[in-house]
Amino acid sequence: MSAALRFVKHHALTAYVLLAFAYLLVPIAVVIMFSFNNPRGRFNYTWEGFTLDNWRHWDAVPGLKSAIFLSLEVAALTSIAATALGTLIALALVRYGFRGRGATNLLIFLPMSAPEIVLGASLLTLFLSMSVMPSLGFGTILIAHVMFSISYVVVTVKARLIGFDRHLEEAAMDLGANEWTTFRKVTLPLIAPAILAGALLVFALSVDDFVITNFVAGSKVTFPLFVWGAARVGAPPQVNVIGSAIFVIALAIMVVNVLVQIRRRPTVQPA
Amino acid sequence: MAEAAGSLSAAPARAGTGSLLHRHRRLTPYLLLAPGLAFLALFFLVPIGFLGYQSLETQNPIDFSNSFTWAWHNYADALSGYDSQLIRSFEYAAIATAIALLLSYPLAYWIAFRGGRWKNLFLLMIIAPFFVTYLIRTLAWETILADQGPVVHFLRFAHLINVVGQNDRLLATPTAVVAGITYNFLPFMALPLYVALEQIDQRLIEAAQDLYSNKARAFLHVTLPLSMPGVIAGTLLTFIPAAGDFINAQLLGTPGQYMIGNVIQSKFLELTDYPAAASLSLLLMAVILALVAVYVRVLGTEKLTG
User: Fold this and answer.
1) Which of A60, A73, B93, B199 matches a 20 to 30 Å C-alpha distance to A139?
2) Are A9 and A142 contained in the same domain?
3) A144/B contact by beta carbon, under 8 A
């Protein structure tokens, strides 16, 4: 085998991986780059010059600011509600034997496996057919977001509870703590990272959701709905500014998380 | 399960601590489950039931009011009227899933076996697209594939534009829509693949090589079979949202590339033809549930939910 061929063979996988990473990251670079674009017309598709104006006047587009605030408000409330409901379900599933486990697992799994469009459509039919339901708007958006988020919290918290040393709780109880005290002082702090992870995941899912929200929002406009409306007539560069900002914030949170994990882990890993 | 039930009660019972949970231990799981499951029942199961009810209604052509008539023909009408969009949805979803698998497997493999201590950072790069709003990253593809963009220029230069696209364009072709779908759901493929590959005991692969298997055979007979749970999970997690998607077809395609999701969404939100939209939604759901049933058979519900 010639040296060149050997070189290619040896590095083929690495080259492929580099290309795959490029494929993943180039569109993100495009989003960030075009947030600095200075388009002459209303279409932000071709590069026409660098400017900081879009970042400086990020709220210059009518409706954008209120859409962002609505999204943040919905996401915060959804996080709280879905995390509480999901954590309780996860505790029940891991800690207790009860009838109907299989059915419960199925009910948790189904919302994650149903196509979003079906979830949105079915909620819309419910809201329209039942007069006791709130009319389309903030309340229905919130209900929809909590509905599709609960399962993700259950999965996240469950994973942590399964890999959890039960002896710690038993020790607390042996030392005289009752169940509630044990939960508060031992269980909760130990599963707190998973609860936080679940809450952050829900926040991200909620801020990003378009399909379901589009069905139940009525006349309310969240950030993704704003982008959708703007895309029909040519999205302004401010949309890229907000997209980039969300990206940078999410990335910062994740990088901190990864760095903490790397530092905590011993440098020499068992083979 | 029985073990899980036993361990809390195995701790010495302390009579008289007095909490409600304590006295009704057998009730505890139900009390924990009740609020969340009630919410899911009311806002997930009941709405699906309403959707079923609505799918059997007939719309009055004069005042567009709907009345329940056991109109099973709605399903036949939906199938015959939108068969091309339905088939296209599963076709695009299948192609996108296959491409995503081919792209992510080497990537996940490389991170799992060669990632070293930077594994988590590489994983972060895989999920990075999720940090950009779905609609915005799809719009970025619109920019990348635009008629004046670099990709189209290169393909024109290489005389490949009408092989990959149509009419000297990439936008408004099936290629653009499939590319968008592949990109948007790729992390759903790569993550389960990584998890499955990461769990493989390296010594099994070494053993195969010690027994004179070459690298290719060791991969085919050891690594690949052991990573199958990841392949199955990844393909379904990619295929399901891809089949129901309408955003890529809307932003990167034309009505010639519309999928079943486009039909459902316009029937619900623009035409308000609820019976037809409801029967289409349930048809989509039924096909997808059939796939999930296979998935549950293979892996079991416990593994599915973590």
Assistant:
1) A60
2) no
3) yes
pLDDT at B281 (0 to 100)? 93
Angle at B207 between CA B201 and CA B210, to 5 degrees: 150
Judged against a pLDDT cut of 50, whether residue B56 lies above it is answered with: yes
- With an 8 Å Cβ cutoff, is A111 touching chain B? yes
CATH class of the structural domain B73-304: mainly alpha
Considering its fold, how many domains does chain A have in total?
Answer: 2
Shared domain for A72 and A42, answered yes or no, is no
* Interface size, chain A vs chain B, as Cβ–Cβ contacts under 8 Å: 283
Name the minimum distance, in Å, from the CA of B93 to any CA of chain A.
Answer: 13
A199, burial (CB in 10 Å: exposed 0-12, middle 13-18, buried 19+):
buried
Kindly indicate the confidence band of residue B3, based on its pLDDT and cuts at 50, 70 and 90.
Answer: very low
Give residue B4's pLDDT: 43
Considering the domain architecture, whether residues A158 and A209 belong to the same structural domain is answered as yes
Q: What digits encode the pLDDT tens for the residues B107-139? A: 999 999 988 888 888 988 998 999 999 999 999
Mutation for testing the A interface, residue in B23, B44, B204, B263 having most A CBs under 10 Å: B44
With beta carbons under 8 A apart, name residues in chain A contacting B151: none
One domain, residues A159 and A208: yes
B80 interfacial to chain A (CB closer than 8 Å): no
Can you tell me the distance from the alpha carbon of B94 to that of B232, in angstroms, rounded to the nearest whole number?
13
Give per-residue pLDDT as tens, A86-116: 999 999 998 888 888 889 999 998 898 888 9
Residue A261 lies in a domain: no
Closest residue to B4, CB basis, from A97, A144, A159:
A97
Other CB atoms within a 10 A radius of the CB of residue B160 amount to: 11
Set of chain A residues whose Cβ sits within 8 Å of the Cβ of B13: none
Q: Which range marks the domain in which residue A208 is found?
A: 62-235
A242 is a domain residue = no
Residue B15: what pLDDT?
42
Query: CB of A191 within 8 Å of any CB in chain B?
Result: no
The answer as to whether A259 is a domain residue is no
Q: Are residues A8 and A77 in the same domain?
A: no
DSSP letter, residue A52: S
A210 and A82, same domain (yes or no): yes
The reported pTM is 0.86
Give the gap in angstroms from C-alpha B107 to the nearest C-alpha of chain A: 5
| ipTM confidence | 0.86
Whether A30 sits inside 8 A of B143 (CB atoms) is yes
Q: What is the mean pLDDT of chain B?
A: 85
Cα–Cα distance measured from residue B188 to residue B206, given in angstroms and rounded to the nearest whole number: 29
Domain spans of chain B, in order of start: 73-304
Cβ of residue B304 closer than 8 Å to a chain A Cβ: yes
Question: Looking at residue A31, what is its pLDDT?
Answer: 94
Among A35, A53, A71, give the residue marking a domain's end. Answer: A53
Same domain membership, residue A175 and residue A149:
yes
B47/A123 touch (CB, cutoff 8 Å), yes or no:
yes
- Nearest beta carbon to residue B137 from set A31, A107, A235: A31
DSSP letters for A152-196: HHHHHHHHHHHTS-HHHHHHHHHTT--HHHHIIIIIHHHHHHHHH
If asked whether residues A30 and A113 sit together in one domain, one would say no
More confident residue, B211 or A122: A122
